[in-house]
Amino acid sequence: VEEINQIIEAVDMSKKFSLRDKALLSTLYASGLRVSELICLKMQNLIVQEGLIRIFGKGDKERIVPIGKIALEDIKCYMKRLRPQLSSKGKGQGILFLNSRGNQLTRMSIWNILHENTLRSGINKKVSPHVLRHSFATHLLEGGADLRSVQEMLGHSDITTTQVYTNIDK
Question: CA-to-CA distance for 98 and 84, rounded, in angstroms?
């Protein structure tokens, strides 16, 4: 948990896209989204009042995932202070996280944002967006969440995938 927080807090808030970068890193960890789900996340799928996100995952399966208050605050700040400038430049089509041209981010851009902030944090481990998803699940289980709930949040159709995924040892 401390290392994930270090990475998120390593975002250089003096940089132009810092609000977006912090919000997307917070969202990845706080919701356990796949990168493909994050880059396709639309503003209309945020249920801010309830602290939830509607996700369309693999096979277009829909699920509702809770998102933490800190990530929600980061998203609100990004939406208020940076996203309007980005959306005016391109064809964002309601996508939440946009690049400098106002278009949807790529998988590689997410990886680069994470990599840059991992280096800045001083953590010398290989960290990928999938590691944030894995950490989300593992930290929930360590905190007492039941395996079935974690399965639902991750969008796994088979609970054995969740068990393997989170290195559960019976």
Answer: 10
Could you tell me the sign of the dihedral formed by the alpha carbons of 154, 53, 42, 80, in that order? negative
**In terms of DSSP H, where are the helices of 69-128?**
69-81, 83-87, 107-121
Q: What does DSSP assign to residue 99? A: -
- Bridge partners, residue 65, by sequence: 53
- Within 10 angstroms of residue 118's Cβ, the number of other Cβ atoms is 21
DSSP state of 105: P
List Cβ neighbours of 159 (8 Å cut-off, separation of 6 or more).
147, 148, 151
Average pLDDT over residues 97-120: 97
The yes-or-no verdict on residue 16 having pLDDT over 50 is yes
Catalytically active residues are 34, 58, 130, 133, 156, 165
CA-nearest of 81, 64, 76, 60 to 17 is: 81
What count of residues does the chain have?
170
Residue pair 35/107 in contact (Cβ under 8 Å)? The answer is: yes
Supply the pTM of this predicted model.
0.92
Q: How confident is the model at residue 170 (pLDDT cuts 50, 70, 90)?
A: very low
